[in-house]
Design a protein that fits this description.
single chain; Nucleotidyltransferase, domain 5; globular; alpha/beta
Amino acid sequence: MNIRRKKISNGVNYPNFNEEKKFWKKGLKLVIGIDEAGRGPLAGPVVAGAVMFKFVKAKHSGVQDSKKLTPKKREEIYNYFKKNPDIEWGIGVVSEKIIDKINILEATKLAMIKAVKDLEKKLVRAETGMQFVLIIDGNMKLNINLVQKSIIKADQKVFSCALASIFAKVTRDEIMQKFHKKYPEYCFDKHKGYGTNHHFKMIKKYGYCKIHRKSFYPIKLF
């Protein structure tokens, strides 16, 4: 497990396993990195990813915060890891309706809890009796009775969180691609629901649709 933080020529640091190792050394083997995608968009769900490494054998030099990767690179990394036996992963999705009902922060926490529970279902019985540890990107605590550590910008520092961000982002993009087929006039395939100039123009032209977040500005003005 001697994996060091790698640096590229411009001095950018890649995520590493330093935080996971701190727990592994204490005998806490089930360390889950968590991150989300879709807190900021005007439409669609918020999606969380949860990733746990069982063995640190699979290496991929391109893993970092999903926002720093091209869609092609995210897909490449996602496809590399999604069937990799060295990890377990889960996804949690919370709809725009729930976001409007409980607010985006609480919806994000709910998506993270769902992702953890989805991951837990994939573990063999021998592992489920062990204690989970959560490393959460951001500054929040989840309403779940597990050891938790929140780290600001964990998706840039912690390998499992960075990979979780990629799983969340790829999954959410796939969801928005499907919504594009249902609501082609908004071009969700291009902006994925974020507040781009074109998206604002389409909202002004057509009004909002079923998947827009009614509690978000400027949707709530309509």
